[in-house]
Amino acid sequence: MSRVGFRRLVPWAVACLILAADVFISVRNHADLDRLLINVILALSAFATLHARMLSLANAGFMAIGAYTSAILAVKLGLPVAISLPAAVLLCGLVAVVIGLPVLRLTDVYLAICTLGFGEVVRILIVLLPGLTGGPTGANLSTGFPYEAMRRTQTWMIAAFLALLVYLFWAMSRSKTGRAFRAIRDRPQAASTMGIDIVAYRNLAFLMSAMIAGAAGAFYAHSVGSLDNSDFRFTRAVDILSYAVVGGSGQWFGPILGAGLLTALPILLRDSLGASIGFLRSFAQLPNILTGLGLLLVIIFLPGGMAHALHLQRKGTRGRTAGSVESGKDALAAPGAATGTGPQDFLSVHELTRVFGGVEALRNVSLQFEKGRIYGLIGPNGAGKTTFINLVSGLVTPTSGGIMWQGKAIHGHRAHQIARAGIARTYQSIRLFDEMSALDNVIVGHHAHIHTSLLSTWLRLPREAREEGEARDQAARLLERLGLSELAGRPAGTLSYGDQRRVEIARALALHPLLLLLDEPAAGMNEVETSRLGRFLLELKDHGYTLVVVEHHMDLIMGVCERIAVLNFGRVIALGTPTEISGNDQVLEAYLGRD
Amino acid sequence: MDLTLLADPVFLAQNVVDGVARGALYAVYAMGFTLIFGVLDIINLAHAATFMWCAFAGWLVMSQLGLPLPLGLAVSMLAGAGIAVLLELLAFRPLRRAGSDRLASMISSIGASLIMVSIAEAVFGVETRRFPDSVLDPRPFLLGGTGGLRVSRAQILIVAASVILTLALGFFIRRTRMGKAIRAIAANLSASRLLGINVNGVVVVTFLAAGALAGAAGILVGLLTNNIVPGMGAQIELRGLAVVILGGMGNIEGAVLGGLILGLVETFAIAYLPGGSDIKDAIAFLILFLILLVRPNGILGRKTAEGA
């Protein structure tokens, strides 16, 4: 025990040391305390975007906007900080929405590049508007602003604001929103097919990040008392990023540790060691070098940051299980009624074609699906089966042709819209949210059915607790139904292959879909598991679900499917009942082989 | 906008010359950057810091040891190659091994860049260094007498060097066995490994080439602006990004074209727009922003090194 116990203690000891160092430094110097608090706020602003898997380097730019706005309002218009600061934050929010709408559609590195440029442009504007900003060397707040008298209040206000932020992040992390962010961070595509609107969440994250950075900038302006555009250079953006990366962007407390460490360490080194090593005292670049080293070492050796190490420890001891499950209620309660009437109105694809760089993955496929049946989709590797599922679930848009769902065309709709319209799927290569528990994975499936807003989460309205509880119960029942109750508290990534496949099915069912697309659900399962899965699929059908099963296990396909479509080189080569298909010469030749 | 200036052919020609020289410089810088992205999908934000260190390496040997320009250029390119390989070994390879995504490699390059710039600041301070005049005669050629066109030796050298380097890189990528391996890795890294290509070896060669290009750019910028400071990387970083996005990430011809466009646009903005020299720093961003919104794959589309 002792060895393992000791290793478990190390991250906690490190965290405590950082906080102790911060307290030590802060007690001696008010300016250092302000700086520390502001850095922690900045770290949370970087966290807000990183947590949604966005690398934004715009924080320094928003910090500058916040700093200059609040300073100008306070100095030139004589407004109290209680007005100038919220005004600065609102302006940052406005700018974030305006530039976020186009920019946030960009993928990872392009977003980073664009936001890097944004930060530079803010600085250029500061220089170009000397009448407003005081030019490059800035607005000097010490004239016309009772700065010294405000100082004590300032520190108190910064601390209060930080406390509020910590509460907001903590509450969010336990809500639907927090789960959605974790899902997006882990597997954006899977998140979108669970009905999560990735673009909306990215906009929310960017907005929060901008407003928090703006607040930090305003506090910075009032704490430092003068402004210089070079305070908001790219280096600042890198500092902010490093707090969140070193601390860890998976859990809300990570950035607090990161900012604490990277603020305290240089001060400590300079103040305590500097006395004995004169070189360090004059080494102005030391903090930057430490920051750079921190970024490099953490990203290579501890990709989740310090908080990740702590979080894993907690998981080991907590081991949350599904808890008590009300039996009696059926987890597989029939899906909602289809809106269409005729059988053709359920799902039909018409002349569906998808070309990938000159290769036709799917060519002129026309199929109709009726409600309440199990369909099989088979064919050799590369026949276009997964492409078909990707097209119907909205991950891929068709090159030509159409998809009609309940009488409406859904091709071109985004994945989360299709998921919310009642089409759920699983993946051939399992895409669970690995670090979440099996139970939380299934709760993510409920995302579209939890209507609590972020505001009611923050206000702790009773509705939120009720909806969360319901989602938890339903998820637990689904897991029970699939025989996974005992594994509910385990991180999904640690489960066996077959268990992971079943968690994926549970997660898809949590969406209350009308149609379930299963991409090789039995892959990696043994005979016993496969036949149990077959019985479960038939049960789903009895409850009114419609299934499309892509599979290579012929026993499963022949055993449960009512109609089978055979694809080869992107075309439907046969369509019929299992008996018809197994007797079809073309199929035998193309797919089953001739032996 | 001063319309009378538009009518002045000498002024116009002067700006074309200056713009092409500036653009050729951006092209040399951006080629190395885009090569690494095209092959490895890595945004190497330490490319600018590499470039800055190379300029200092050139300055050290030329002004302190008195070496002539060709040797200074060689030393600088070697230094760039060496630094780039160090970056690959310390900042990128461990991440590739761990299967990290490209945001991780971008972050590690940011960390490496910060370290490199900070060390340069600690070592060289903030004072501006210049190459000695003996390296290259600073007097320009005058075409058409004293009110005529001024073309400096540095400008001629930059354009010549960029043409040679572009052709050499193109030959290397398209005509050599190593180039073929690089293109294979650009197309599919894991498949290349399965086919028995020594991926790590080829990647090192790629970084060697990209670093050498950064080294050449460092010397050329030093010759053109005569302003060698630790912060010089930051001045070209955003421009380099704008250039590669303009031309299409990973596209070498695109980097050349994008470099020329940015060089000309910047030069003309300074010449013809009121307050142009102030807004020229914003031009790179405006181009970058517009291209990302309108045509994220750049004007030549996303053809990676293998695509041509």
| Major β-sheet profile of chain B | 2 strands, antiparallel
Strand elements of chain A, count: 10
Portion in helices of chain A: 55-70%
SSE succession of chain B: HHHHHEEHHHHHHH
CATH class of the largest domain in chain A: Mainly Alpha
Largest interface, per-chain counts? A-B, 40 and 43 residues
User: What is the CATH-assigned architecture of the largest domain in chain A?
Assistant: Orthogonal Bundle
Number of strands of chain B: 2
Task: Quickly give the structural class of chain A.
Answer: alpha/beta
If strands are numbered along the chain, what order do they take across the biggest sheet of chain B? 1-2
The outline of chain B comes out as globular
Q: What portion of the residues of chain A fall into strands of 2 or more residues?
A: 5-15%
Radius of gyration of chain B: 19 Å
| Individual helix count of chain A | 25
What's the gyration radius of chain A in Å? 28 Å
**How many domains in all of chain A?**
2
* Range of helix content of chain B: over 70%
Low-confidence parts of chain B: 302-308
Mean pLDDT level of chain A? 84
Give the N-to-C terminal Cα separation of chain B: 40 Å
List the helices and strands and how they pair.
The complex is a heterodimer of chains A (595) and B (308).
Chain A: H1 2-28, H2 30-50, H3 59-76, H4 81-103, H5 108-128, H6 130-133, H7 147-173, H8 176-186, H9 188-192, H10 198-224, H11 234-247, H12 254-273, H13 278-281, H14 286-301, H15 305-318, E1 347-356, E2 359-369, E3 374-378, H16 385-392, E4 400-405, E5 408-409, H17 415-420, E6 423-425, H18 438-445, H19 454-458, H20 462-481, H21 497-509, E7 515-519, H22 527-542, E8 546-550, H23 554-560, E9 563-568, E10 571-576, H24 578-582, H25 585-592
Parallel strand pairs in A: 3-8, 3-9, 6-7, 7-8
Antiparallel strand pairs in A: 1-2, 1-4, 4-5, 9-10
Chain B: H1 3-6, H2 9-40, H3 47-64, H4 69-98, H5 102-124, E1 141-143, E2 149-151, H6 153-175, H7 177-187, H8 189-194, H9 199-225, H10 232-247, H11 252-272, H12 276-294
Antiparallel strand pairs in B: 1-2
